[in-house]
Amino acid sequence: MIAVNQSSHAPTDGQPLILKARELAPTVRGYADTIDRDRKLPAELVKLMRDAGLFHALLPRDLGGHEADPVTHARTVEEVARGDGSAGWCVMIAGQQCAFAGFIPKEDALAIYGNGGIVAGTARPIGRAVATQEPADGFIVSGRWPFASGSSHATWFAGECIVYDGEQPRRDVQGNEVSRMCFVPASEVQIIDTWDTIGLSGTASNDFVIKGAFVPRTRGFQVLVDKPMHPWPLYRAEPLIFINHAAQALGVARGAIDSAIDIATTKRGWGGVTMKDTPRMQAAIAEALALVDSAATYLYDTSWRCWQSTLEGEHDAQLRGRVRLAASHAMKSSVQAVDTLHAAVATTGIFNTSPISRQFRDIHTASAHVMIGTMTIEAAGRVILGDEPQFPFF
């Protein structure tokens, strides 16, 4: 396989973790067909990634993680996704779920994330948490949630609920229903096999059901309301938690460039000419690389400036808005790059056995996520114009 140069915008202190992911990428790529067929990550691959620390890159050190800066983590996700989109997605989502650790007491965070614990879950308040004080202070949690990426290897699940006092939903002083994210061990969760999709098949983003599980009060928090208990600055920089969505897309697009180069150097087109000698293929690969490299530069440079601003105690709304814009732009650019390559390889791309077919399906599935979609771009535009984003995590 001919190598394509990576963007050079990761901070130097993050290189060891990125190199671990890069070294693991060929192994990930070797599992790609199995991941797609079985609709989950193989247990042996999960172990390799866990042992490499990839699932806990965004977990603070005192909770057993690497406490990597968000740009380093994003570049790690990109490397894994270059090998396989589903594997990269699972590393991405595990990192996002690590952000929850900062909002609960340290003892509970260690119980959940310690010893390689991996959380899957859904930030959507569609469950029911009934407050109780007997026999202990906490909540009885029930509900069904969709899109629990990594459900096949998660050790804990997080489901957002509406809080009830008896039969009545609890309300705050403004009259809004009070929600709560609740953590439940996998042993008390039922997974419903619903994840039958055109792409990202191996993420096992199934529904999960909780039926009357007791959750101690300390094992939860209210999203977008409660302040972090942990001092790590990342918990004050919400936009940076979502840049790994963009990194996953960039990784899939880089994998598609790899696939296109492989096809171009081995397949002959009309008239027996090797595809690498055709202007159509040459232009497609060049255009795709320009799209991906430029989007990566914008994403990582903007994100790094935002991280430095956060470390200095600043809250720059314009810069934070540009981080969210850069993430959504990277997704759009990645889709465009993969579409260009998929069209250029012609009939090779229509067979599901072709890696570029999987990359085409994966990138379009990934692009459906709300956190890197049109609404995020619109919100970023409102911020640039001096208005409120009217969208979370800005």
- SS strand fraction: 15-25%
Output the CATH topology of the largest domain: Butyryl-CoA Dehydrogenase, subunit A, domain 3
- Mind telling me the CATH superfamily name of the largest domain? Butyryl-CoA Dehydrogenase, subunit A, domain 3
Order of SSEs, N→C?
A: HHHHHHEEEEEEEEHHHHHH
Estimated structural class: alpha+beta
Q: Give unreliable regions as ranges.
A: 1-10
* Helix share bin: 40-55%
What value does the Rg take, in angstroms?
A: 21 Å
How many strand segments?
Answer: 8
At the first level of CATH, the class of the largest domain is Mainly Alpha
**How many angstroms separate the termini?**
40 Å
Net shape: globular
